[in-house]
Design a protein that fits this description.
- The structure holds two protein chains of two kinds.
- Chain A is built from ten helices and ten strands.
- By secondary structure, chain A is of the alpha/beta class.
- In chain A, strand 1 (5-14) and strand 2 form a beta hairpin.
- Chain B is an all-alpha fold.
- Chain B has a single domain, classed as ABC transporter involved in vitamin B12 uptake, BtuC (Orthogonal Bundle), CATH 1.10.3470.
- Chain B is 73% helix and 3% strand.
- Chain B has helices spanning 2-32, 39-57, 61-82, 92-114, 140-162, 164-174, 176-181, 186-207, 218-233, 238-258, 264-278, and strands at residues 130-133, 136-139.
- Chain B has a two-stranded antiparallel ribbon.
- In chain B, a hairpin with a 2-residue loop joins strand 1 and strand 2.
- In chain B, helix 2 (39-57) packs across helix 3 (61-82) and helix 2 (39-57) packs across helix 8 (186-207).
- Chain B is globular, with a radius of gyration of 19 Å.
- Chain B starts with a helix and ends in an 8-residue tail after the last helix.
- In chain B, 53% of the residues are buried.
- Classes of the chains: A alpha/beta, B mainly alpha.
- Chains A and B meet through helix 2, strand 6 and helix 3 of A and helix 6 and helix 7 of B.
């Protein structure tokens, strides 16, 4: 089987200042992969580069066999990569429903959008209750659900979630992780970026550990959880 | 009392046109954070479009206003493509000075091509026609412009608030990156927003020659008043720009009639200062 996403020797950064130094990773269809690492390791930069918000300084990103390194973000979404950015970034002055409609901006069929919205309201019942409410009035957890729902409504082939646990209370983090697992089991390929190393590796199939812009470790998630290096550096054990 | 109502109505009619000019500026400002200093000059160019269509092809301003709107739509889109695009992400002063330069260019281009002379359109469909309601006299050219302005502002409001495209405009205004991530081509939104903002002022300028002389300086005051309306209404708020447009029109008319014509702008700018002192974010600002 060919990987759905293949990143080779990616160098990326901001205004020519590199942050990511030669990252390579592969994601197979249907997998749930976690990228973990400390703050400032280059996780979000990697995500932003894959999603097209910034472009690689060098290296290559291919999605379903197509080179997407220099496409802009809206083109990459159309190909099937949906990126739920760090900090939720919902459209605060618009209603929950409007946010969802915009998530499906590229889908022309109105009935299809409504069908998908109903589906997502089944997964996130609280969003149905809040449908008409202005998004910025939602609680942090609800906003995160909205961000994920907005990312899912375009029916992406690859869903990338960035630091979705940030600012959520522990019980909510657990619930989010369960939701991600469920979404993955329903067929979506998921790339998860987390500072919460343990929680992320517990639900993931495979993982990559990033430090200072480089991958220092990769493998099956349970192996990583049990590895001396991860336990010492990230789990405080 | 009757005189008061008459002045009030005159003020509201010109106020609605101000509102339309302001709405175009407001849209560009609200979505892109760009202050288009050439907005008044767009109006002036639109007036020339309408004037020359009338002079050369005998088209009435009521019809040419559509052509003027379309023409300024293109000018707006081109302004974005050729100038504004390069100022995005740079300090706000860059776009401001660039559009200021465009304003000077347009003004002097028209001065050079068409001379500074005042040009008046006579024999239009509406010229000199009035409507008598009770004791009130309503000038038909102004009434037509006001009704047209009302319709266009209403359509703009519906477009921004009730269509998926409008939500995409709002989303782009709130968070451009997040908008890109849901698949919105924000570059295209920017082009269209600049075009639509231009079209608004283009429609206003297209109808105006039926009651106002055309000359290269005519846009300056309208541009300034549009800024006031946008700032007073709250940046980015179309209803705010509309209300302030009406308010400016009425205050201008009342001051011009009851104090002295030379004081009308003193009253308008005084009102602006008062609003900004008391409520810096504007009437509808958030």
């Amino acid at each position: 089987m060919d990987p759905i996403l293949k990143v080779s020797n990616l160098h990326s950064g901001y205004d020519g200042v590199p942050v990511v130094f030669g990252i390579s990773l592969e994601i197979m269809p249907g997998e749930l992969v976690a990228i973990v690492g400390a703050n400032g390791a280059g996780k979000t930069t990697t995500m932003k580069t894959i999603s097209g918000l910034i472009h690689p300084l060098s290296g290559n990103i291919s999605f379903l066999g197509q080179d997407v390194s220099n496409l802009s973000a809206h083109e990459i979404l159309k190909l099937g990569i949906s990126y739920v950015p760090e900090g939720r970034r919902i459209f605060g002055k618009l209603s929950v429903r409007q946010n969802m409609y915009l998530g499906a901006y590229t889908e022309k069929s109105q009935t299809e959008v409504s069908r998908r919205m109903d589906e997502l309201f089944e997964i996130f019942p609280v969003l149905r209750k809040r449908a008409k409410q202005v998004a910025e009035t939602l609680s942090g957890g609800e906003q995160q659900m909205l961000a994920i729902a907005r990312g899912l409504i375009s029916k992406p082939k690859l869903l990338m979630l960035d630091e979705m646990s940030l600012g959520l209370m522990p019980s909510m983090v657990e619930k989010m992780m369960e939701t991600v697992k469920a979404v993955n089991e329903a067929g979506a390929t998921v790339l998860l970026v987390e500072q919460m190393v343990q929680e992320a590796l517990e639900i993931a199939d495979r993982g990559y550990v990033i430090q200072n812009g480089k991958i220092i470790l990769s493998g099956q998630a349970d192996e990583l959880l049990n590895s001396e290096q991860v336990r010492k550096a990230y789990l405080g054990m | 009392m009757e005189t008061f109502i008459q002045v009030l109505i005159d003020g509201m009619l010109s106020g609605m046109v101000y509102a339309l000019v302001a709405a175009g500026l407001c849209l560009i400002w609200g979505v892109m954070d760009v202050i288009n200093f050439a907005h008044g000059e767009y109006l002036m160019v639109a007036m020339y479009v309408s004037y020359w269509l009338g002079f050369l092809a005998n088209v009435d301003p009521v019809v040419s206003t559509v052509a003027a709107g379309a023409f300024i739509f293109m000018i707006g889109a081109l302004t974005y493509k050729l100038i504004i695009r390069f100022t995005i992400g740079k300090p706000g002063l860059v776009a401001l000075l660039a559009t200021f330069g465009l304003a000077i260019f347009l003004k002097n281009l028209c001065m050079n091509q068409f001379s500074p002379n005042f040009r008046i359109m006579s024999d239009t469909w509406l010229s000199g026609k009035t409507l008598h309601v009770g004791g009130l006299i309503i000038a038909l050219p102004q009434l037509t412009a006001a009704v047209l302005a009302l319709i266009v502002v209403g359509l703009l409001y519906l477009l921004v608030n009730s269509t998926k495209f409008g939500w995409a405009i709002q989303a782009t205004a709130m968070d451009r990156e997040a908008a890109e991530l849901v698949g919105i081509n924000t570059e295209r939104i920017y082009i269209l927003v600049f075009g639509i903002g231009g079209a608004c002022v283009g429609v206003a300028g297209g109808i105006m020659p039926s009651y106002l002389a055309v000359h290269p300086e005519v846009g300056s005051m309208f541009g300034l008043i549009a800024f006031i309306c946008v700032a007073m209404g709250g940046f980015g708020s179309i209803p705010g720009a509309f209300i302030s447009g009406l308010l400016v029109g009425v205050v201008e008319a009342l001051a011009g009639f009851y104090i002295a014509p030379v004081f009308k702008y003193v009253a308008v700018f005084g009102l602006y200062l008062a609003v900004i002192f008391l409520r810096p974010k504007g009437i509808f600002g958030w």
